[in-house]
Amino acid sequence: MNSPGNSSQKVPVLRHPPAPADSLLWEPSERWVRGMKGDVTVVDSRRPVLVWEPGRPVPLYAFPRDDVRTDLLRETEKSAGRPHAGTTLFYDLDIGGETIAGAAWTYPGEELGSYISFEWFGREVLDHWYEEDEEIFVHPRDPHKRVDALPSSRHVQVEIDGTVVADTRAPVLLFETGLPVRYYLPREDVSLDLFTPSDLTTRCPYKGVATDYWSWPGEGVPPNIAWSYPDPLSAVGVIKDRVAFFNEAVDITVDGERLERPVTEFIKPRE
């Protein structure tokens, strides 16, 4: 009898591959999605599709024409933003006396040719987007991505240029697919008096709005190195008012082991 670890059947073992870089992927969604400009509902759909463009790590929504205020759209051949996977048909949005150039587009091909998509990431042409009754920011949530915030008893220390700025045995570890683990620490275990408050505000579709940022006063450290969510989305409510640091630019030690600094799009390594 073969043991579980020594099966005679040869099964290939592959690490989960990324999506093909030259493919446009899509799938239906059952979420109720609305987009608003001011007090005007421009999109109201219970049958959107999610679309992943080549080279783009986050999805966009596309909506059946019947679910879009097409009376507010004007066809144009010009894009006001980045190209969209072979698209040649764009729309300006005319609303309230304002014209937003290249606000929407239709993808080529039979599967998506009857759908309309709107700019989100980097150029939000509508003021508010909702999935069901919860407002979301930046881009649609990816159903294949998880964000788990787990309370822990690990011993976490944070150092900047040799100075210990945080020390706790009660962190919350936030695991987000494709990103380094973020350690959210109790404020009382962080020496915030060593930092300078910042007025930066950022938004995340999975965590909400971060309005509390801090910068390290020393040289060679990127600004806004630490942040907090005073009112996070309910799914990660346990991180409320806790402080996290960019692992990419500080030294984090967990249970006595110094972590290697990751390299991400958020913080470039020092030269």
UniProtKB/TrEMBL annotation:
Gene3D superfamilies from the UniProt entry: Domain of unknown function (DUF427)
InterPro entries, per database record: DUF427, DUF427_sf
Polar residues bias (residue ranges): 1-10
Protein origin, superkingdom: Bacteria
Pfam family, one: NTP_transf_9
Region entry Disordered, spans: 1-20
Residue stretches making up the DUF427 domain: 37-109, 156-248
Protein's recorded name: Uncharacterized protein (DUF427 family)
